[in-house]
Amino acid sequence: MAETRPTATVKTTTSVQPKKSSNMIAWIAPVGCILLGYIIWRFILGADANFEKPDTAGGFWPKHEGPKGGLYRMYEGGIIVPLLLATLLIVITFVVERLLTISKASGKGSIAEFIRRVQFNLANKDVDKALAECDKQRGSVGNVMKAGLRKYKEMITNTELDSDQKVLNIQKEVEEATALELPMLEKNLVFLSTIASVATLLGLLGTVLGMITSFAALGAEGGGNAAAELSRGISEALYNTALGIGTSAIAIICYNIFTTKIDAITYGIDESGFTLTQSFASNYK
Fold first, then answer.
1. Contacts by 65-70 with C-beta closer than 8 Å and gap 24+?
2. What is the pTM assigned to this prediction?
3. Confidence of residue 10 (pLDDT cuts 50, 70, 90)
4. What is the extent of the structural domain holding 164?
5. How does pLDDT run across 252-273, given as a tens digit for each residue?
6. Number of domains the chain contains
7. 205 in a domain, yes or no?
8. CA 182 – CA 109 distance, rounded (Å)
9. For strand 65-67 and strand 51-53, is the pairing parallel, antiparallel, or unpaired?
């Protein structure tokens, strides 16, 4: 009876290493923006010098009267105003953070041109020049392409695997590199998408609270003075709506811009994987 031997299992290593990244800004920024929003509302908009009848006793929420300018009327919008200011500051913070991150992930040139240059070098079987192009391009597409090219180069000299297995190894390497890049691109966008809805609701809440206070004053005082007080109260309450809608609009616009840029980078990553597998399959059958 013939002796059977177990087939050897070929183990392939990956050049993709997990990225060490902290997201402390997601914890620090909201708390810091809430504190800064209150400071702006209480000590800048609500400074004693900005009112004809300041509440010099101070405290958490001084009852100033007679704002000297239209901007300072925002203070009389109530305690919702610092929360709305905080949401605006959070949007600005994460817009800047995402802008820097996505700009870096986009690389140093056109993604389409970069892929064409890599395709040209691979067609000439010059993997080293293709790797050099990745070092020039950088960004998420460059990183994924570089990881795939390293495996591509390794598979060229591999004699233990057949052509289909080599292509699968290259594809797996690209998928692992992609899995490390995409979370970095989409991180913290949840703040913009959430504030896009919450800011409007906060603005409406502030307006409703202001209207309740105004109509309560109308019912208590009566007469022409009460009508003037009602008009003033409505005007102040609408500052909440304006600030909430404005913040929401900024968040929505920036969120859509960033998701569009991320889609373009993701498409480039997908095209990179397709380029590597098709090139290897045609050049090294």
1. none
2. 0.86
3. very low
4. 81-283
5. 999 999 999 999 999 999 999 9
6. 1
7. yes
8. 19
9. antiparallel
